[in-house]
Specification:
Shape: elongated
Number of strands: 14
Order of helices and strands: EEEEEEEEEEEEEEHHH
CATH architecture of the largest domain: Alpha-Beta Horseshoe
Radius of gyration: 30 Å
Largest sheet: 6 strands, parallel
CATH topology of the largest domain: Leucine-rich repeat, LRR (right-handed beta-alpha superhelix)
CATH class of the largest domain: Alpha Beta
Length: about 290
Amino acid sequence: LDLHQNKLGMLPSCFRGLTALMQLDLSQNQFTGGIPPCLQNLTNLQKVVQNLKLDSKVDEDTSSTSENRADFTAKGTVYSYSGTVLSYMSGLDLSCNRLTGKIPLELGNLSNLHALNLSHNDLWGSIPASLSKMKQIESLDLSYNSLTGHIPTELVVLTALEVFSVAHNRLSGEVPSKAQFATFDAGSYEGNRFLCGPPLANKSCTPSELPSINASALEEDEWIDMEAFYMSFAGSCATMFVCVLALLWINPHWSRVWFHLVETFALSCYYFIEDTFRRLTRVMRNVQ
């Protein structure tokens, strides 16, 4: 199923009827919204690719067999697959989109995945512990989102994991240090000021040595500088006022029309106020 190079704006809500699907190309789209939990139904999936990742080609030589070729980003590197080895490549790449919401727990049921890339989206909530069921996962990239909470300790059972990145989120707590997690460097966790433990610079997780976690810190990305807002608003109003004056000065006809409208409005306000005042005066006299 090839849907690449379109302007699709939302992922389908369900893939229930596509259980035999082996290849799905969703590259070069503009997907928004949440990740549908029913992706778990794609049990025979070989590759799901998003954002400039898949390129299928057919050999033009009719005497040879058709050959599929795919470029897939995993472990921070672009890998090219072709021929029989392509049948062993299994990955889900939904990176660099506008996806929102939580990571579905059901993604953990895709136990045959070797690479999962959800980076550069607007996903929030915690990292589901169900991802620990992906026993064959080799590359897990959740960087550049708004994920919160702790890194699940259940993930230490992923012994095949070679690349792991949760950089630039809002995670907190101690970094797992067992099994494969003992091999990851600080770059896998950078941009999370409330994470602690090796290999981070903040190796101690005692409360006295951790920065205080408060609402203002966790929501700093949503904070608005009101002083800058007022200044920009005033500047915009002043610019519009100057533009109107310049336009009226350049075009005499519009200037006359404008001043006529202003005069008419001023006279209408004057007579309205005068008429209202007279009516109130009469009412007061009748009451007395």
